[in-house]
Design a protein that fits this description.
Layout lengths: L1 H23 L7 H18 L3 E5 L9 E6 L5 H9 L5 E5 L6 H9 L3 E3 L6 H15 L4 E2 L29 E16 L2 E12 L5 H4 L6 H18 L3
Length: 239
């Protein structure tokens, strides 16, 4: 019986999401901040429709005087919805290439200047282009990077942070902000994962690459340090 209710709940959420995407499609403009608040409004409705109790802790730690790279753990697709619903500042995402294959979603991703990343390519030229784009966008607006590269779903143990997104960021006037997304419970319906109950977003103290070491750090070292900081937030959150 619960499985049946979960399926109905998932279908209701998908319907609401598609409805809101279609309804607000024409309101998108060329203005990043405007488009962010359109996306935020949609995501807040989805959170409410899913009966999620969303809380954000220490959001005032997010820099307001310079750009930042937010690096949270990644449990499921809804992490993006939670971050958009909770953030008071415009943010964009380094998003998987597959997401850009959906015409309607593609328009929204582009509207907030998300970066398309092919996680599985071995083409060095494409990797360098993605790194250059991340560096360019960070000089202009805030980005969210999921360093695990993929969702951990039911496994609360984080995947190892990958170094790709941290390559080429040294020397930028921005800060790296660790974050931990705590999801009380996740139910699965086939390939779909639905968070239920309470969700908390814990923001940690920002750091700069040069704060970690006086020497020039490699991308792998930055990734490891960032994961250490996120794990500390996980422990603080009691998970």
């Amino acid at each position: 019986m619960r499985k049946f209710r979960d399926i109905l709940g998932m279908l209701r959420l998908l319907y609401r999401l598609v409805y809101e995407l279609i309804r607000n499609y024409r309101s998108l403009t060329d203005d990043l901040e405007h488009n962010f608040f359109v996306c935020k409004k949609i995501c807040k409705k989805i959170v409410k429709s899913a009966n999620i109790r969303l809380s954000t802790f220490e959001q005032d730690k997010l820099p307001t005087d310079k750009r930042f790279l937010l690096v949270p753990n990644h449990r499921c697709f809804f992490d993006v919805v939670f971050l958009l619903a909770a953030s008071e500042q415009p943010i964009s995402f380094v998003a998987a290439k597959e997401l850009f294959n959906y015409p309607l979603l593609h328009r929204y991703l582009k509207s907030i200047r998300c970066i398309c990343l092919d996680r599985y390519t071995k083409d060095i030229t494409k990797l360098k282009a993605s790194i250059a784009e991340i560096r360019s966008e960070l000089s202009d607006h805030n980005l969210v990077l999921f360093p695990e590269g993929e969702c951990s779903y039911h496994n609360k143990r984080m995947n190892k942070f990958k170094k790709g997104g941290f390559m080429g960021i040294s020397g930028l006037n921005m800060e790296i902000v660790p974050a931990f997304i705590k999801i009380g419970q996740i139910r699965n319906i086939g390939r779909w994962m639905i968070p239920v109950g309470e969700v908390g977003i814990y923001i940690g103290d920002p750091f700069r690459v040069e704060d970690v070491s006086t020497k020039r750090m490699q991308a792998g070292e930055i990734a490891s340090y960032a994961q250490k900081r996120v794990l500390e937030l996980q422990e603080m959150a009691g998970e």
